[in-house]
Each structure stands twice: as structure tokens, then as C-alpha cells.
Input
Amino acid sequence: MALAEPDPATADGPNQTVDGPDPGPDRPAWLPRWFWPLLAAPATVWLVLLFAAPFYVILCVAFGSLNPIFLTPLPQYDPFRWQFGTFLWVVRQIFTNGSVFQADFGHTLAYVAIATTGTLMIGYPVAYFISRHAGRFRLAFLAALLAPFWISYMMRMLAWISLLEPDGYVNRILAALHLTSSPPAWLDGRPVTVILGLVYGYAPYMILVLFGALARIDRSLLEAARDLGLGQARAFWRVTVPLTRQAIVAGCVIVSLPMFGDYFTQSLLAGTRNTAMVGNLIEEEIQSSLVVQGASLVIVMLVLLMMPMLYYTRSTARARQVLGT
Amino acid sequence: MTAAEVGLPARGPLPASLRRLVAWLQNPWGRARLLWVVALGYVIWALVPVAVAVLFSFNAGRSISVWQGFSTRWYAGDVNSVWQNPSLRTALVNTMRLAGLTVVIAVPLGVALAIALDRWRGRGSGASNFLMLFSFVTPELAIAIALFLFFAQLLTFVSLGLQAQLLGLSMFEIAYPTIVVRARLASIPRDYEEAAMDLGASPGQALRRVLLPMLAPAVFASAAIVFATTLDDFVIAQQVNLNASTQTIPILIYSSARVGPLPSLNALASLTLVLSTLVIGLAVLVYRRSTRGERRRGEGR
Amino acid sequence: MREQPGVQSAGGQASRRQFLRLAAAGMTLPAAPALLAACGTSSGGGTQHATSKNAYGTGGIGGAPYPLARPSAPVTWNILADNPPIKSGLAPEKGPLRVFWYNDYIYKNVLNAFAKRHGKAVQTTVFTVPEEMVSKVQADPSAFDLIVTVTLDNVGKLIAGKLIQPLNHSYLPHFGNLWKSYQDPFYDRGCRYTVPYIVYTTGSAWRNDLVKANVPSMANPYDIFWDTRYAHKVEVLNGSRDLLALGLLENRVSDVNTNSQAALTAATTKLLQGVRSMSWKFNHTDYSELTVAGEWYVHETWSGQVAYYKSYLPKGLSIDKFSYLWPAQASAKRPALLQNDVFAIPSGARNPVLAHALIDTLLQESYAIPNYGYEGYQPPLNFLQPDRIVAMGLIPKHLANIIITEDMFPLGVAELEMAPATTSHYQQLYQQVTGGAGGA
Output
């Protein structure tokens, strides 16, 4: 295993020559200084051009104006001429009772919170099982766990639409079990359906993260707990869960970040105003004369999610450090 | 085992069958039966709907929710089948083309970045690394909107449709090969390249003839992952889409799923499912076969 | 921003308009505009009538850099020096003819017949909403040769932006087949830039076996969309103009181009109440959601959509379970939408002669009738009378009320071009009501 990552800031001191003997541990003497950066350059340029630059354009559209006849956006590329009127209006609207912005944000926060909790409730037992009790079926379960990652999300949603149709199997099973007198119309705009769809869609991510952490728990810790007299349940709550606390947080972040931008699950499974999410709002505005508002909403969303995003990025980088790569 | 024997408090009128079930679950000698039920239940819940969707692609009637008999008409034969309906065929072709081209661009870029990040200790590596990771964690909708405005407002010479989709996705997918290959690089010490360079190889030769062959399984695996995820990408593909002639399968499914969907949609989705499974299965096989030696050597379970 | 009243029109026009305004005063529709030519009967009612001079055209009302056409303020568009029509007597270009259309808006067989007759190919590109069409044509006016179609609320901006070219009627010998009123419409006097393609009404379609209400005799036929007995089973049209129009018309405001804050606020409140209590879905895919159990019981729709139903009926559902009502034909005779779409030729078209030829083809009987049979949307052509349409089996008898005749015009209102700020305002209100769920 390689050494712990040296501090990048000091690796290349100011006194190094380009092709001379290199005292640092990071590259052999004959390797030119520009070799690794050159290798990284194409991807970095690609990312700067197609990831960073487009976000600058979003800023320019959000702080720009509209063509007066066609109501198409006129992005303002000079930061000193940016106008924040619409952006601030959008932010104020989010806190205004009864506004559609507040409503959609409300739905989104509620659905994401409930669905994330749902994936945790479902995911933890499954991950625990696969890591501890699956025995010789472990590989089979892992394959089943990973399958949704390459099965098209659209196909999985299409599958649920067919099952949830008024004459679909879900209602037929419910009727056969006499659990309900009149089977509900699942697809006509119910938050329950949207939340179930989100849980279904993103549960595999949570399970994978939890499994990774649970599989790495040193069995000797649990044996020690048992030796000390803790029953199975208490060993679980006082040893296993705290050891996976960071994974739980990471899993929640990994699952809730994409859920925030999700608009297609709601569109497919419900499609009414009462269940609309922020993503729906943004998507509709971008194609209309409200594009400046849409761009502003994207910025608000990113600002809101900046902390989780940075946390996720840092924890991934730090994990790599801990692993010594 | 009765309820009393396992310490279940004597409760009132639990139906006998339910009491037996609870007793069975709580059996302290049984191996985590409740967890078995939960895990199996999850697997069924996760996969059975997909199986049903595949099943309905063989429906004899026009419904996607009521079984009306077996038929392959939606694959070929019906005027709306995948084979005969031009918009379904176009979507299939578009999707494959987009996925293939994305792999061709994203994988080399990602692999190069992975090697560089792993070996580079300079000042810029943190920034490149951060940029790559950030592109991975940002919600796809934000990226898609940014790309749409970018191409519609600034880089107008790039046409929406295949060009914009390719550029956007090839950027979005860079993170996968980078992460996968980098994980693999962690277990490849630098000794091999250094030995090669000691023996007179140039850095480029060392990379090409020593390191890359060792990375080949990981590269292949990441190519499979990029292919499978691009086949399935919806948000970016839709936002920079032009119209029906450039739409991909996820876009087609999305726009048709609530508008009188026919089983031909299921057929299309099933075809991509088979393709993804084959690609991923192949990658897993290749990966396990090439790293078989290492596993035998030291990492056995 | 109130629309500014313009200059009084000249001579005989004013007296005829005044006369008709007095006559109209007795009607229950105090502001019922009509889509008729000035030499026909232009019933007025609007308080604005203008022939203000403007670089782009004469007539219309103010509020935008170009005139906004209203039935009471028709517009004659100028032919501008830097956007002239093509010369007469030119030979057809070599093609291919590039048509920019709503998907499948012309019968494929008709397009193929046209292609064969002229020996040129036809290519089509699809757009889904008017905004998309405007932005694509703006991006490149030479990308297409014919737009099928433009809605009336976009004609002015396309002309002012020099994105469409004036037509040369020498290439349109069958122009006389159009209804007289459409040969000289208020929104484009003399049809200088546009030719009407189809005319349609907006009303309600419902399952007469599942809906107990007697819709045609309701005091306010729009109330059916708010009837909580059918909550979760009612779907309305998406699109900012159509949805806001529904709210305005429900509240008895017949000016669906108003920017009166009071009227719009009341309409939005009513619509929000409907969203909450009825859980509407917003779409125009009613024809594809026909199920025996009834995925929807009531659907706001266009007359042409109803003609599609018979091709999408599932087994066990017959067409006579469906009824349609245009609210202006209900016993309450409420103002309701009656509109048309038009052809236009982009200013940079490379095959304008072919484009004219295709327009002319669709004005001819031998092509227009099969086209109508497939499209379901009615062209305003003289040889298509209601009896003939029913006799040909194109429309079932009990749905014959989707057929439009010239005498329906006085009852109809249309969504017309508004000042850009008003357009944006409507979109804002639309978003407030749909919350983003009103996407196409």
C-alpha cells in the first residue's frame, strides 16, 4: 500500500528545477514535471469546458434579462452588469405563504425527507442481512442488489405504472385479499405513490453504502461485546449502529441529493400540482419566458445543497486518504 | 415451539396462525429468520416489477397492465412494434450510438485522469480531483439545465440533439472510469513502471506497455459501466434533446408512459435490459478472470 | 399597463362599427369579438379601435412595438423593403421541401402525393409547443421552408421580427376555396403573410355514461370542470393561454386577452380552487387515455381531438359513450373559444415556391378532404359543409357539434397576441396554478 498522501501544497517547492534530480518521493528523476498534469489535462479541460462554464452561463442567465419581443433570455456575461432583481424575488417567494415556490419546495423537502428515511428503514436490515447472514447466498444477493443499477430507471418506473394502473396487479391483489373495498387510483396524484417511487428508485444506493460499512466491521468487536454480556439486540444498537453512523449519514446524502433534482418520478407516477416538486418547476420555467426565474431556482437549489455536496466530496477524498491511495 | 416457550407474553386473541408465525420468526436457534424474510421481500419487491414489465412485452393485447395472452408482436410483426415503428427504431439507434460514442470519449479521458491523479502529487491534482468529484455529486438536473442554456445561448454552433447530448454525457461520465480505475490503481504499486523505466523505457512506454495492460480489466469494467449508465441516462439527454428524431429510449419511455403506452415500450425496455445485462456480465467475467490470480494469492475469503 | 386606445378609424368603418356596437349592446355578450372581415359584419364591442400607424402595419391596438390585432381593430401588415415577397412566375425549386410542423399535422399520404406530383422530396421536423417554434425560427429563419402552423398569438412578432415572408398569391390559385371571412381576416388583412389551415373550438368532452350532469343545460357549462363529484377524473388543457382562458371564461370574462389585474386574479383564484378540490391533470392527450373504466370522465379539449377518438377506442368502448359541448352552443350560450391556425413561410426559406404549392394543395378538394379525414381538425373550406361531413362518415352524427360553420363566429372568442409583459404575466400565473405540473 502506498504511503499516506503528502500535503500537496508543499510537494513542489519553489526551488525545483524542471529536469534536474528530484528529491521528492513522488516521481523518478527522469520524469518531466509536466507529465502527470499533461495526462490529467484532457479530462480537466473537458470538465472545465462542459461543467464549470455552463454553470457560469446559468449565473449569466439568472442575472441577465429578456429579449423584449420574443421573451428569450439575454444572458449578461459581464459580472459588473448583473441584475439581481428576479433572483431576489424568487428567494422572497420561497418564503411567501401560498406561493407556488413555497408549495413545491415544501413538497420536495417532505418527500425527500420521508423517502430518505424510508430507504434507511428498508435498507439497513437488508444490508445487515447480506453482510452477516447471507452465507453462501451472499453473491446472489449482491447481484440482486446491484441489478437495479444497470436496469433502466425508466423501465423500473414503467413497471410500476403498469402495476399501479386501476386494472393492474396491485389493485387486483388488494381486491383478492379483501384488504380494501374500492381499490384506490394510485396514479391520479397521490403523495404516497410519489414517495414509494422515490424509495424504490433510490434504495439500492443506500443499501450499497450501508453494506460497504457493515461488511467492514471487525467481527472481533462484536465478539467482545458478546463476551461483555450484551444481548444480540443491545450489541446491535450499541456497537454496530454507532460504527456505521458515518455510513448512514453518507447514505442519506447520496440518496437525498439526486432526489432533490428528481422531477420525472413525480411526472410519471402522479403529475398533478398537489405533488409537484421543485424539479418540475425548474423544468417548466426554463422552456418559457420565465427562464430567468428557472435559472435562479437552479442557483437556489445548488446553494441549498452545497453543504451536502461538499460533505460528500470531502468524505470521498478523505476516505481515499484513510485507505492510503 | 409454542409462543410460551419463546417467552412471548400470553396475549389475548392472536389468531393461531399469526402466533405460529411470530414464534417461528422469534426462534432464537433459527438463523435470523426475520431478516431472511425482509431481505427476500426486498429482492422480490425490487426485481419482480421488472420481471412483470418484461412479461408484458410479450402481451398479446394492447394493455400494459392486463395479461391477454402470449405474443411476440411487439418485437416484430405489429405496425407499432420495435422493428416496424420508425420512432422506436430511431430511439434504439440513437441510444446505442450515443452510448457507444460516449464510451469512446469518456473512458480514455477518465482513465488518463485516474492515472494522473493517482501518481501526481502536484498542486493542480486537488483541483482536478475536486472538479471530477463535484461533477459526480451535483444533481443531474442542475447540470442538464446548465448544459442546455450553455448550448442554446453561448455555444450555438453546437446543435441540440446528438452533438449536445454527446458532449454533455461524455463530461458527466468521466467520473465513473476515474473512480473505478483509481480504485484498481490503489492495489498496483509503482514498482512495475519504475522497473520498466530503470530498464530504459520512456515514461510513455512504461505507461502503455506495463501499466495499461494491468489496468485493462478495470478499464473494461468502467467502459461497461459507462455504456450501461448512458443507455439509461434521462435527464441530460432530455434537456438538450432536439425532437423526436434525436430522442433516446428513456426519453421515449418517459413521454409515452402516461400517454396510452403500448407493450412495444416494454419490448424496447426489455431489449436494453438484455443489452445492459450482457455488457455488465461480460465485464464482470473479464474482471474476475483477470484478477483471478490475485484473488487466489491473497484475498480469499 | 392598460392597452392604449388608438385613433378613430376613418369614415364608413366607424359608422358601421358604431351601429353594430349598439346592436351588440342588447346581447348577453357585451364584448363578443368576431373573426369576420370588415366588408362582412364586424361586430365590435371593444372599447379600443385603432388605425395607429406603425412601421410594421396599420391598425391594431398598442402595447407592443408592433400592432396587436383585435377583431375590432384589424391589422394590415406592411410589406417591408428588406423582406419582400418572391417574384411571380418562378419555377419550383429542386427541394427538398422542409416542413416545420406539429407532429403528423398533415396526412402523410397527402404529403406523399404532393411529393410525387412535383417530383420533390418533403422533410419534416417536429416542434411541440409554439414557444419552441418561435425560438427555433428565430435562431435560424432559413432552416425551414414552411411552418405548420402558427397560432394567432405569434403572428405579429414573427412579422415584426422579419421571420416570415409575405406571400405571393399568384402561387395560390385555389385561395378562393376558403370561407369568405377567412380570405380577409382581422389579424392579417388580405392574408398577406398567412393562410388559414384549420379552425377549431375549445369545449368539454365527457363520458355520457359516467357523468350524471346534463352538461348542455347547465347554467354555467364551465362549472363541470369544478364538479367535485368527479374529482380526480377531470383533465384540462395545458398551456398558459388555454388554462387562463378557462378561468376567465368560467368567471364570465369574455376578453381572454385581458390584462385587467382584477379579472386575472379572480381567474387564478378560481383555477387554484379547482386544482385543490379536483386534482386536475393538465394535458391534451385525451384521445390516448380512453379506457372502459374511464381514466377521465370530463376533459377540456379541442373539437379536432374528438374526431381522433374513434381511432383510439379500446375494445368494449363505443364512440357513442362520448359527448362534446361548445359552451357557446349550450342553452346558456356562454362565450367560448373558437380559433384558427395559419400557415407561414419563413423569410429565409430556400424553397418558397414549393412551400406555396403545398399550401395551395391543401386548399384543393381532392387533398383537403382525405387530409381532414385523417387529421380530424376542420379546414375552413367551402366544399366542406356539415351535411357532407356527416354523410361521408367522417364524424358520427351525435358528435356533429364539433363541426364549425361560419355563423358560429359571433359567439366565439380567440386567444390573440398580447403585449410581451402580459404574455409573461400569463405564464407566471399559469405556473402558479400548475406548480410545474403543467408541462407538455
Summary: Chain B touches chain A through 99 residues (CB under 8 Å). Residues 86-300 of chain B form a domain with the MetI-like fold fold (CATH 1.10.3720.10).
